[in-house]
Amino acid sequence: MSFWDPRNVPPYPPARYTKDEPEVSAWLKRGDEPPDYDSFGLVKYHYLANQQQTNGDYGLYRVDISPQGGGPGPHFHRAMSEAFFVLSGTVRLYDGNDWRDGNQGDFLYVPPAGSTASAMRPMRRRRC
């Protein structure tokens, strides 16, 4: 049995907000809202939190991919990382050397400058 050890927890980042009282700034994005971008019904993008809404901290998107849908070819990003949490189905990710399958519950991460591509071979609908 292993016990939680507070010495193994990474340090908390420095404070960016220094006022004594919290802001009233939380918001909600409903899961049943239509997609923000629909690629002919093959891939649907839901922008859950974009760069403008998070003051550049991050972007979070839900992507619904039909069995006939695909992903981008080999590429890399100079300014951002990519992270994928597979909600259902299988997403194939190219890591620069090999194809890796991410299945339901898996997390895939590509750091800035990391070579990546995603491929969607015909199968059931995927969500990430």
From TrEMBL:
<feature type="domain" description="Cupin type-2">
    <location>
        <begin position="63"/>
        <end position="112"/>
    </location>
</feature>
<dbReference type="Pfam" id="PF07883">
    <property type="entry name" value="Cupin_2"/>
</dbReference>
<keyword id="KW-0413">Isomerase</keyword>
<dbReference type="GO" id="GO:0016853">
    <property type="term" value="F:isomerase activity"/>
</dbReference>
<dbReference type="InterPro" id="IPR011051">
    <property type="entry name" value="RmlC_Cupin_sf"/>
</dbReference>
<dbReference type="InterPro" id="IPR053146">
    <property type="entry name" value="QDO-like"/>
</dbReference>
<feature type="region of interest" description="Disordered">
    <location>
        <begin position="1"/>
        <end position="22"/>
    </location>
</feature>
<dbReference type="InterPro" id="IPR013096">
    <property type="entry name" value="Cupin_2"/>
</dbReference>
<protein>
    <submittedName>
        <fullName>Mannose-6-phosphate isomerase</fullName>
    </submittedName>
</protein>
<dbReference type="InterPro" id="IPR014710">
    <property type="entry name" value="RmlC-like_jellyroll"/>
</dbReference>
